[in-house]
Amino acid sequence: MSINEKLKITPLYDEHVALGARMVPFAGWNMPVQYSGVVEEHKCVRNQVGLFDVSHMGEINVTGRGALDFLQMMTVNDVSKIIIGQAQYNAFCYENGTIVDDIIIYRRGYDSFFICVNASNIEKDYSWLKEHAPKQGVILENLSDDYAQIAVQGPKSRELVSKVVDVKIADLAYYHFAEGKVLGVPSIIARTGYTGELGYELYIPSSAAPKIWKALMQAGSDYGIKACGLGARDTLRLECGYLLYGNDMDHTTTALECGLSWITKFEKNTFIGKEVLLNQKEKGLNKRLVAFEMQEKAIGRHGYKIYSSKDGEQEIGIITSGSPSPTLTKNIGMAYVTTDYSKIGSSIWIEVRGEKKLAMVVKKPFFVHGSVQG
């Protein structure tokens, strides 16, 4: 960021300050990184329920008779498979197969799609869509300023959210959503999240955010609720092997290299980046995103270099995400390494403050016992 660039604030900024949050710049926003402490907030989400302000995320509407065909061209996953009331994890790619952004698409009607995009990519994504949209049949709307987003995550989240919504969510399946009211305010109640736990993301009008946040905090006191910041959000998602745009994938990494082959549907007629990705699939990858666990007392952090041996014989990769795991009490991370070192069980050496520390490539995710499917 430019030193003169003013940070944006969410509609919940005053609530964060009142709760004593430590605020930090993130993707052009002034966001809470922690309140009571990262580990405490992390464990609260794993065991009870936590509340996150994710209003910095963007929302884009794509509607019209050509919306489905347009999104089929723009994304790697098969949008035609989404039924009304269902969500889908997806991604936009450039022509060379690298990632524009990873997104969630919510299908609200036959020709009505609501897309959640990453905060740092709102303008870029919207411009990318406008650049490729047909002149007729597709209507694009950047609704990011109109919506706030509150994530309620943890084993107790269903009980809590049930207290403030007017729709039955007991049978709402994972990656599905309902349209109803939160405290009388028209909203989207989605059973999605970034923590590996049962959870809901509430898309609400920006003006109603403070009222709803306060009500959730008050009602959640019965369940041991805590406000949670970006720090806990990061450790929670890392334990589950969820990718973070700008760290684990970006415009320099392809959908296959970062492990998104499971959502890349080559059976689709065509999509932007398909030819390059298909060629890469057939010829093989030069690098892969892998998970690792430290085997020595050290923490591998974003940007640390990886070597093939302790004597630094060959540089083979770089860490994209890394931290201690509060749940597993291990030091974990993700990294790009050359394909020769991507097999599970491979030993790699990470340069930590000038010293090589041993790590091992392991299977993702690190944490598999969450309540997300509960």
From TrEMBL:
<dbReference type="InterPro" id="IPR028896">
    <property type="entry name" value="GcvT/YgfZ/DmdA"/>
</dbReference>
<dbReference type="InterPro" id="IPR029043">
    <property type="entry name" value="GcvT/YgfZ_C"/>
</dbReference>
<comment type="similarity">
    <text>Belongs to the GcvT family.</text>
</comment>
<dbReference type="InterPro" id="IPR027266">
    <property type="entry name" value="TrmE/GcvT-like"/>
</dbReference>
<dbReference type="InterPro" id="IPR006222">
    <property type="entry name" value="GCVT_N"/>
</dbReference>
<dbReference type="GO" id="GO:0008168">
    <property type="term" value="F:methyltransferase activity"/>
</dbReference>
<dbReference type="GO" id="GO:0019464">
    <property type="term" value="P:glycine decarboxylation via glycine cleavage system"/>
</dbReference>
<keyword id="KW-0489">Methyltransferase</keyword>
<comment type="subunit">
    <text>The glycine cleavage system is composed of four proteins: P, T, L and H.</text>
</comment>
<dbReference type="InterPro" id="IPR022903">
    <property type="entry name" value="GcvT_bac"/>
</dbReference>
<feature type="domain" description="Aminomethyltransferase C-terminal">
    <location>
        <begin position="287"/>
        <end position="367"/>
    </location>
</feature>
<keyword id="KW-0032">Aminotransferase</keyword>
<keyword id="KW-0808">Transferase</keyword>
<protein>
    <recommendedName>
        <fullName>Aminomethyltransferase</fullName>
        <ecNumber>2.1.2.10</ecNumber>
    </recommendedName>
</protein>
<dbReference type="GO" id="GO:0004047">
    <property type="term" value="F:aminomethyltransferase activity"/>
</dbReference>
<dbReference type="GO" id="GO:0008483">
    <property type="term" value="F:transaminase activity"/>
</dbReference>
<dbReference type="GO" id="GO:0005960">
    <property type="term" value="C:glycine cleavage complex"/>
</dbReference>
<dbReference type="InterPro" id="IPR006223">
    <property type="entry name" value="GcvT"/>
</dbReference>
<dbReference type="GO" id="GO:0032259">
    <property type="term" value="P:methylation"/>
</dbReference>
<feature type="binding site">
    <location>
        <position position="201"/>
    </location>
    <ligand>
        <name>substrate</name>
    </ligand>
</feature>
<feature type="domain" description="GCVT N-terminal">
    <location>
        <begin position="12"/>
        <end position="268"/>
    </location>
</feature>
<dbReference type="Pfam" id="PF08669">
    <property type="entry name" value="GCV_T_C"/>
</dbReference>
<dbReference type="InterPro" id="IPR013977">
    <property type="entry name" value="GcvT_C"/>
</dbReference>
<comment type="function">
    <text>The glycine cleavage system catalyzes the degradation of glycine.</text>
</comment>
<dbReference type="GO" id="GO:0005829">
    <property type="term" value="C:cytosol"/>
</dbReference>
<dbReference type="Pfam" id="PF01571">
    <property type="entry name" value="GCV_T"/>
</dbReference>
